[in-house]
Specification:
The protein is mainly beta and 162 residues long. It contains 2 helices and 12 strands; from the N terminus they run E-E-E-E-E-E-E-E-E-E-H-E-H-E. A 7-stranded antiparallel β-sheet has the order 8-5-10-3-2-1-11, covered by helices on one side. Strands 7-6-9 form a 3-stranded antiparallel β-sheet, with no helix packed on it. A two-stranded antiparallel ribbon has the order 4-12.
Length: 162
């Protein structure tokens, strides 16, 4: 792996900075400092039986999802997209969206945001994954997520009234 700007960066499986974020495992492959702010890319292992992140809107970044393994259900502006291994989904900024594992085994996504910088949100709300097989105990700190979101141009609308 190279840290010098302008050099190729090579990150092997398990070498990227790894965080637990809302019950899922995020392994960072390239962050904005590596790409002159152009993009950030990470691999997310999406845990089955969790609800996924709350529906949210990125006001600064386009986000792409490529399903490496498993089955994921993405919702974008009310449209439900069933995405299995090999599927690609682009979510433009300003789009209300969320995702969840739709299968019974962990799913893996390659996720990118353009431009980079949003990965710092995960640094703020996530927990270092000292053991990638052992998620932190207890529910996520929702207040921490809600407090950090506006700093990163992230809007989390309240759920619709019943």
């Amino acid at each position: 792996m190279s840290d010098a700007m302008g050099d190729a960066k090579h990150v092997l499986r398990g070498e990227g900075r790894t965080l637990w974020v809302l019950g899922d495992l995020y392994e960072f492959k390239a962050v904005s400092e590596d790409t002159h702010g152009a993009f950030a890319t990470w691999e997310t292992t999406v845990t089955p039986e969790l609800p996924g992140p709350p529906p949210h809107i990125h006001h600064r970044e386009d986000e792409t999802f490529y399903v490496l393994e498993g089955e994921v259900e993405l919702s974008a502006n009310g449209r439900v997209i069933e995405a299995a291994t090999g599927a690609f989904v682009n979510v433009p900024k300003g789009t209300l969206h969320t995702f969840r594992n739709a299968g019974s085994k962990p799913a893996k996504l390659l996720v990118s945001v353009v431009p980079g910088g949003f990965e710092k949100f995960f640094d703020e709300i996530g927990e270092p994954a000292t053991d990638p097989n052992s998620p932190p105990a207890g529910p996520p700190d929702v207040e921490k997520v809600m407090a950090a979101a506006p700093k990163y141009g992230l809007e989390i609308p309240p759920p619709p009234a019943p």
